[in-house]
Amino acid sequence: MEQRLGLSEGWHITPAGGATGEAYIAENHEQKLFLKRNSSPFLAVLSAEGIVPKLIWTRRMENGDVITAQQWLEGRELKASDMKHPSVANLLSKIHGSKELLDLLKRIEKNPLEPEGVLTEIDEQVIAQVSHPVLDKARVYLERNLERIRFHQKVVCHGDVNHNNWLLSAEKQLYLIDWDGAMVADPALDIGQLLYWYIPKNEWQDWLDQYGIKLSSNLEERMRWYVIAQTILSINWHRRRDERKEMENWIKYLQEIF
């Protein structure tokens, strides 16, 4: 295992969990590292910007895999109640405003995500596989509002701002980790997910004040559109993994949105 991950003898390797099974914790007597196979190709820029823990090294293996090693930080994941903290809004605003991240993601041929692409993915992967009245209703809503939510000022979006992906170090430094699903998209994709899941609606503007924008009717429409679309894709993700309870919870959540 050590050689497969680009390490010499004397390291103790344990799985770090996660959906992909490609992450590991490596320890020896002097150092502790977080290793990942084929991580995000712009991890170095994320590290330089202080968005993720420090990148220590990157190694390309003989089989073509790329192994990255990051500084291991003692800390904790954020709780749902922590998502109201101004530091969350500030970091997400920094990410969305980063020209360096945007330029790099465009250079590695990340085409901007457009609403039509989202709708096509839903048609091909979900609507054709899952039959439920609320999905049909949601599909009609998404198509009907396609033009209303079009937004041209694309940014780098994380794509999964779940509280489990936010790491608060022992030194109180906040990071957003797990960038495998990064995309160039409407910032409403990230903002809507975060506000809908964690912030009471009467506090949305307070949170957005920290982020640096005003709550407009257009932003509300865009957030709602992407939250509905992401919820449908979450339903399908759990369906493919045969996780019936989680799938039903997301269907219930979609019904609540409507």
Automatic annotation (TrEMBL):
Q: Which Gene3D superfamilies match?
A: 3.90.1200.10
Alphabetical keyword list:
Transferase
* InterPro entries, A to Z: Aminoglycoside_PTrfase, CcrZ_PhaseVar_Mediator, Kinase-like_dom_sf
A GO MF annotation of the entry reads:
transferase activity
Where is each Aminoglycoside phosphotransferase domain found?
Answer: 17-226
- Write down the PANTHER family for this protein, in alphabetical order: CELL CYCLE REGULATOR CCRZ (PTHR40086:SF1), PHOSPHOTRANSFERASE YTMP-RELATED (PTHR40086)
Offer one Pfam family short name for this entry. Answer: APH
Query: Does the keyword section mention Ubl conjugation?
Result: no
SUPFAM superfamilies, sorted = Protein kinase-like (PK-like)
This one is known as: Phosphotransferase
